[in-house]
Write a structure and sequence with these properties.
Number of helices: 10
Strand order of the largest sheet: 12-13-15-16-17-22-21-20-19
Oligomer: single chain
Number of strands: 29
Mean pLDDT: 90
Bound molecules: MU-OXO-diiron, calcium ion
Shape: globular
Distance between the termini: 37 Å
Largest sheet: 9 strands, antiparallel
Structural class: alpha+beta
Strand content: 25-35%
Helix content: 10-25%
């Protein structure tokens, strides 16, 4: 990549239309790296490569230097981050900055409509009742406005807490318990309205649950009648919906992540095939034991049921009768999310495969999405899926997962494009993709189209894109596609921040007072603030012997991508992770999810059916209740934009 390429990549139109006035990528990097003076450890070589490639005449005004001694934490004009950061904490509460308020909306078990089944705090709601209530473990989320002060909130329910979901825990597994778990998974669509400043759920014909049992359709190269998808029943359900996406035509994307964990078998002679092993399918699953009560999840009985999972699922929130559609052209992996952007009128979808050593993918539409829709072709069915190779010199290449190209030929045993997609991971192996430290969320800067990716933690993979070995705190990498065009097949990358606590790890990027670990959720707001949500595992949270006592509970931070400044905005209750984020179009209300408060942690203890409150009792604090995942509605008391 040459200096001229970078100059072309700094799209002046994008820079000038961004309210935050984002400068060119090279100025960002130079300003940040000058201020910090060094990029430490393994990132040095990559950083040097990037800087060498990007040194040259500036296309935009240079950034003003951070005020001396302020560490960039001032409240001056033009700053993206205007709030006073909150300290790390370990209390069983939600903490937001001075001048902000966070209210609880739609906790697990809330009836979908006012006539729906009431929440029972002893978890005795039946499976049928759960299917008419908000699911458990809120995750990815998007707000679809339908008018002023109203809209549809659409959110994923990633998984269930096997102890807290039932009055008697899960020591005995029954079909009713499997059905309740299935009903607590999936997606919720709820209408919400603002009145008197507060947001509340209202009855609506749009209020809907998609669960692990909802009939679903397949589209793209892998059809529902594919021989490897034939199983007992018609395809149904979506599971482990982690992060999400949303399309420019107003639909929601729910992503299937750790679907393998629900499957297992008691058949001692069963052995996984090579493909099943590649996706982590084992006889024990993740310990749910659904297979003991429902043969649908017994891999020895119904092996093809596995192939119905691992997809990105499109849901039209404004058409409650429409079946969710599994968009198979986006590949079959453990999709964390599906972040959509547009370039040259084409849709571009970035998706991480969240497992240690897995890859980053992107889908590029074959033609402008509006034209495809005019032709009655779905934009997510027509295009090319790529996987990323990050080279140590700071450059990168997108490798096409296209049958008949490169190693993906009939001579090498590949049958057709459906075969490539069903075996996406194996196809990416063959292409020489770069193994990464658990790729989670992707966010695209609305100003300059730079792409940011959280790598939550991992073992380090002998490449400079994953510069710490091991990498217990994770990092955020970013890249600029060639020419600033997100459909391009090459890019330049650098490390945005190495997470961690400088008290334990001198390589950590954040200031000591804003230390964080395991970045996971990642989202740009309309002004270009980068929001970072953390998911430190329950075996590590709060533990000094793992270098996490100063980090405290999981949290959300905001970053200024121009300067690298990061401030902690929110701390969650005990045992939770913070995930899912959206705002109203005016940026004055933010929605954030608190997932798995009160889950078993090494630090706080283990809930039991007798004491479900061992770790947390958020948000009800009912002495006879139990912790409940919920959505937070965050507003600024003066009505201002969140983050200012
Ligand atoms: Fe569901 Fe990778 O977090
Ligand atoms: Ca996640
Ligand atoms: Ca998690
Ligand atoms: Ca995670």
């Amino acid at each position: 990549m040459t200096v001229d390429d970078v100059a072309r990549g700094a799209d002046p139109e994008d820079v000038s239309t961004n309210p935050s006035g984002n400068p060119a990528f090279r100025d960002v990097a130079e300003a940040r790296w000058t201020r910090r003076s060094v990029i430490r450890g393994g990132t040095v070589a990559a950083a040097a490569g990037f800087l060498a490639a990007t040194a040259g005449p500036a296309a935009a005004a240079p950034l003003a230097p951070a005020p001396a001694g302020s560490g960039g934490r001032g409240h001056g004009r033009g700053r993206l981050l205007g709030f006073a950061p909150v300290p790390a904490g370990s209390a069983d509460e939600v903490v937001v900055p001075e001048g902000y308020v966070a209210e609880v909306l739609i906790p697990w078990g809330t009836p979908l409509n006012s006539r729906g089944p009431e929440w029972r705090k002893d978890a005795s709601n039946t499976a049928a009742e759960q299917a008419q209530q908000i699911g458990m473990h809120h995750d990815g989320m998007h707000f679809f406005p339908s008018g002023r002060g109203e809209g549809l909130l659409v959110l994923n329910h990633e998984y269930v807490d096997r102890t807290l979901l039932y009055p008697d825990g899960d020591a005995v597994m029954t079909k009713e318990k499997v059905d309740k778990a299935l009903a607590a998974h999936g997606v919720s669509v709820v209408k919400i309205e603002q009145s008197g400043g507060r947001w509340r759920q209202v009855d609506s014909r749009y209020n809907r649950r998609v669960t692990g049992s909802t009939p679903v359709a397949f589209s793209g190269p892998v059809r529902a009648d594919h021989p490897l998808l034939r199983s007992g029943d018609k395809p149904m359900g979506t599971l482990n919906n982690c992060s999400n996406g949303y399309t420019p035509w107003g639909t929601y994307l729910a992503c299937e992540e750790n679907w393998n964990g629900y499957f297992g078998t008691g058949n001692a002679s069963w052995k996984p095939t090579a493909e099943q092993a590649r996706y982590g399918v084992v006889a024990e699953g993740f310990g749910y034991r659904w297979h003991a009560a429902d043969p649908r999840f017994d891999v020895a009985v119904n092996p093809n049921e596995l192939n119905r999972f691992g997809w990105v699922v499109e849901i039209d929130p404004f058409d409650p009768k429409a079946a969710p559609v599994k968009r198979t052209a986006l590949g079959r992996v453990k999709h964390e999310g599906a972040t959509v952007t547009e370039s040259r009128g084409r849709v571009v979808v970035y998706t991480g495969d969240d497992q240690d050593g897995e890859y980053v993918y992107k889908f590029v539409g074959s033609a402008p999405w509006r034209r495809l829709r005019t032709l009655r072709k779905d934009p997510l069915d027509h295009g090319t899926l790529y996987v990323a190779r990050f080279d140590d010199d700071g450059s990168g290449t997108w490798l096409p997962l296209t049958f008949g190209t490169g190693p993906l030929t009939a001579a090498n045993g590949w049958k057709d494009q459906a075969d490539v997609l069903l075996r996406t991971r194996t196809a990416a192996d063959a292409l020489g993709a770069t193994r990464m430290d658990r790729p989670e969320w992707v966010a695209v800067n609305p100003g300059n189209k730079d792409v940011y990716l959280t790598l939550t933690n991992g073992s380090g993979w002998d490449n400079k894109a994953n510069p710490r070995k091991p990498n217990p705190y994770g990092h955020i990498i970013r890249w600029r596609e060639k020419g600033g065009d997100n459909t391009a097949t090459s890019f330049e990358w650098d490390i945005f921040v190495l997470a961690g606590d400088p008290a334990y790890d001198p390589e950590a990027g954040p200031a000591a007072e804003d230390a964080f670990g395991s970045p996971d959720g990642l989202w740009f707001d309309r002004d270009g603030r980068l929001w970072i949500q953390t998911d430190v595992s329950n075996s590590t949270q709060n533990r000094a012997d793992r270098g996490h006592d100063n980090i405290g509970n999981n949290q959300m931070l905001a970053a200024d991508p121009r300067t690298g400044e990061i401030r902690r905005f929110l701390v969650g209750p005990r045992g939770c992770e913070v995930t899912g984020i959206s705002t109203t179009p005016d940026g004055r209300t933010m929605f954030v999810n608190i997932q798995h408060p009160g889950e078993a942690t090494t630090f706080w203890g283990t809930p039991t059916p007798q004491n479900p409150r061992a770790v947390s009792n958020w948000p009800d604090f009912d002495p006879a209740g139990r912790p409940r995942p919920a959505t937070l509605v965050i507003r600024k008391k003066d009505g201002g934009v969140i983050g200012t």
